[in-house]
Amino acid sequence: MSKKRFTLPNWAAYLINAALFAAFIIGGNAVLSSGALPSFITKVAMLIGIQVIAAVSLNISTGYLGQLPLGHAGFMAVGAYASAIFMTRTGIPAQLAFPLGIVIGAAVAGLFGVLIGIPALRLKGDYLAIITLGFGEIIRVVLLNIDSVLGFKLTNGAAGLQGIPKTTTFVNAWLMVGLTCFLIHTFMKSRHGRAVLSIRENEIAAESCGINITYYKTLAFSLSAAFAGAAGALYAGYLGILNPSNFGFMKSIEILVMVVLGGMGSMAGSIVAAIVLTAAPEALRAFDDYRMIVYSLLLIATMIFKPSGLLGRYDFSMKRIIEKCVNGELFASFRRGRGKGAEEA
Amino acid sequence: MKRVFAMVMAVVMAAVMFAGCSAGGNNNASNNSGSGDTIKVGLLGPHSGEYAVYGLGVRNGAELYFKKVNEAGGINGKQIELVVYDNKGDDTEAVTAFTRMVDEGVTALVGDVLTGNTLAVVGEANAVNMPMITPSATAAAVTVKEDGTVYSNVFRTCFIDPFQGEKMAAFAAEVLGVKTAAVFAQTGNDYAQGLADAFKAKCAELGVEIVAEEGYAKGDVDYKSQLTNIAAKNPEVVFCPNYYEDDGLIVTQARQVGVTGTFLGGDGWSGVKNYASADVLEGSYYCSGYAPASTDAVKQFEEEFVAAYGKDTLNMFAATAYDAAMIMCAALEKAEETGYAPASEEYKQAVIDAIRTEGPNVKGITSEGGYTFDEYNNPIKDAVIIKVTGGEEVFDRMF
User: Fold this and answer.
1) Tens digits of per-residue pLDDT, B104-146?
2) A134 touching B, CB under 8 A?
């Protein structure tokens, strides 16, 4: 066969993805605001958006960098509190304060990522897991007790930070999801992303090729923390009240479960798992008392039958699908198995 | 093969999701059609997880009363339909579950149970003007916004934290006649700190000197160094407003290091007798919202409760929830007279107004004098002083 294989130019792929994403946001918003669905669905949809950001951000350090941090909820907490304090203490109108708050939340969480990442990333594997777990708990305990150290009300401790404007909506939550996925995707496609992947594959080999391990590890880790901070900021605007106990160790585990279940290193996997795991407890309400058992069984069954996660390292790519359709190889690929690369619709 | 399994799993998970969704949808449809002859009341709380004892106590206590009303013919001929949702003690789930209740056409809410969850729900409830009585959320902020305005739709049948601290300070000064006191409270715990702060403020007012003030962190089991400091000051009373497991250990260790003063506590002490010996606890007092087996009405409630649900969840929360249900039914009765349809805006406002006007006539089991609400929607009622003696927690007096 000498026929030239059709390839979609990059700009066209981005255009198609952007159009599909815009259609999703507009369509989703139209359906949810039309009142055809019960209003709690809107709440769940917002929550899913927040969880998706948390999961894809953890996927950077777990899936792409190949480390196992257990303090992700701590970064969410930092972002949530930073943006909430900013929104409640400054008199800026909520429409302006909210996007600024997300940026501030992400920046502060990213800064914490650097501060914690530099000492923590000297360790590997389970040692790293334990030290990040420790840092996560430290953040929570500091948020709980800092008021009595400072002598004035900053985080409101155990009473919770109240009166945060509820500015998170379906549209801004999912726009943030789109932005997060786009930024992470482009980062991973850049030379920096390749460097991060090479560290996952073999640290010594990567170093021998001249890659600055410490720099790239810290970069990926703080990027992961920054997006977690953005998720936290959205969470603050969703709930309107923050309590350090919402960001405990179990929250970190919850996010990690999403990443592992979806497949470490697969952005699409993280998204699917975040959607399923966030919707499941609500959807299973019909089972009432048994819902937590059903939920756990779903997790166990998935891990037994597909230990690499639902999607493994496979990533969904609109571009690839279109190309395959045009080239008439759509079904061939199913037989051949997994592809590689990352593209987010 | 594994790929196939993964696919199957994904399909199963998706199917379960949609099954759940469609079940919810069906509910909705049937509910809307049937809303003419039933009144929907929501019951929200942690029915599973760490705080299930509180949540189940509330659920059972409220359910007991609503069932009695239904058996007696309902309200204005309409049956009360309970919409019961578990929030697992999680703020996020509490908000989603509450929104779901609103979707299903709930007219009024008994709950939430934990203070943190309730704080997350009140904002949402206020936005839809949902009449709401919490039987157990004790933080002052539950009924009052940051800026000092009151949530007009939120009421409670329990004390607020500062109230207990004030009561115990007054009890120490006026009944026990002490001149010196010490405070030993868990730091970083809103409940313990709320009580401790109010106790100290009231003591200053009544001329009782706070000679020692110590704290401990959640999870501590050895308190001897702090207690030694307290023992050195020899206070006449030690105010220890923590939860029962900690209190039991604290009292035991305090006696070992030579603290001789009387121990005082808040309603978190309920159940302390199982966590320390009768000797060390002898003569301690705590205040509570509920006095077991104190009056005939209480005894009757306890009998009915145990017959229906067993003894495990019979606690203060069950009693205050029973009262909350009682007030809610009285208010619904009154609102029915207006003739509006349940769950309509006017009906909900009528219920809110009726809670204020009907509350004082409700002879609750934890407040025989009825429920009069103050300007912050908190009940004005006497505290029950419980004395620990002979290894039992017995009703001492109303104070």
Assistant:
1) 999 999 989 988 899 999 989 999 999 999 998 888 889 998 7
2) no
Which residues of chain B does A144 touch, with a Cβ-Cβ cutoff of 8 Å? Answer: 188
Domain end, chosen from B288, B323, B353, is at B288
Task: Check whether residue B108 and residue B153 sit in a common domain.
Answer: yes
Determine the distance from the C-alpha atom of residue B232 to the mean position of all C-alpha atoms in its chain, rounded to a whole number: 37
Partner residue facing B9 (CB), from A38, A294, A305 = A305
- Domain extent at residue A295: 38-313
Task: Report yes or no on B7 lying in a domain.
Answer: no
pTM given for the model? 0.83
* CB < 8 Å to B5, chain A: 305-306
Residue A108 sits in the same domain as residue A222: yes
Tell whether A43 is within 8 A of chain B (Cβ): yes
Query: Are B174 and B216 in the same domain?
Result: yes
CB contact under 8 A, A158 and B188: yes
Q: Rounded to a whole number, what is the distance in Å from the CA of B394 to chain A's nearest CA?
A: 32
Q: Give the 3-state secondary structure of residue B362.
A: coil
Q: Kindly state whether residues B370 and B307 are assigned to the same domain.
A: yes
- Do A21 and A138 share a structural domain? no
A111: tokens are: 């800064």
Domain that holds residue B61: 39-159+296-380
Distance from C-alpha of B140 to C-alpha of B198, rounded to nearest angstrom:
12
Residue B8 located in a structural domain: no
- Spatial separation of the C-alpha atoms in residues B210 and B202, rounded to whole Å: 11
Chain B neighbors of A158, CB-CB under 8 A: 188-190, 193
What's the CATH code of the domain at A248? 1.10.3470
Nearest CA in chain B to A335: B3
Helical packing angle, A72-89 and A39-59, nearest 10°: 120
**Residue B148: per-residue pLDDT:** 84
**Is the distance from CB of A232 to CB of A109 less than 8 angstroms?**
yes
For residue B15, what pLDDT is reported?
52
Mean pLDDT by 10 residues, chain A (345 residues): 72 89 92 85 94 96 92 95 92 86 96 93 87 92 86 83 90 95 94 94 93 94 96 94 90 91 91 90 76 79 85 81 78 51 41
Are both B253 and B311 inside the same structural domain? no
- Domain check: are B124 and B219 in the same one? no
End-to-end CA distance of chain B: give it in Å, rounded: 72
Instruction: Flag if A144 and B188 touch (Cβ within 8 Å).
Output: yes
State pLDDT tens for residues B225-251: 999 999 999 999 999 999 888 899 999
A169: exposed, middle or buried (C-beta count within 10 Å: 0-12, 13-18, 19+)? buried
As a whole number of angstroms, the distance between CA A87 and CA A118 comes to: 30
Q: How far is B256 from chain A (nearest CA, A)?
A: 30
The total of structural domains in chain A comes to 2
Query: Which residues touch A217 (CB under 8 Å, ≥6 apart)?
Result: A65, A67, A117, A121, A199
Whether residue B256 sits in one domain with residue B207: yes
